[in-house]
Design a protein that fits this description.
By secondary structure, the chain is mainly beta. The protein is built from no helices and five strands. The chain has a domain at 14-60.
């Protein structure tokens, strides 16, 4: 869970990652493996999906029309 930020990382909220403003669509907790939680994000302008893991960075998911899970 992200705790040391002024942004709200809750489902439906808008967050800035670098120069992108993205919407949080899903939070993927990772209990027991000592890794940070993953956040699934979407860019509302072009519907591209991203996965953000704190300390590991932002990864863009491939665009598939049937894979929208928001």
């Amino acid at each position: 869970m992200i705790k040391h930020t002024n942004q709200q990382w809750e489902i439906g909220s808008k967050v800035k990652v670098g120069f992108l403003t993205l919407t949080v669509i899903r939070k993927e907790p990772t209990p027991g493996d000592y890794k940070p939680d993953r956040y699934h994000l979407i860019d509302p302008q072009n519907l591209r999906q991203y996965v953000f893991t704190p300390h590991l960075g932002l990864e863009r998911k491939p665009i598939r029309s049937y894979d929208y899970d928001y």
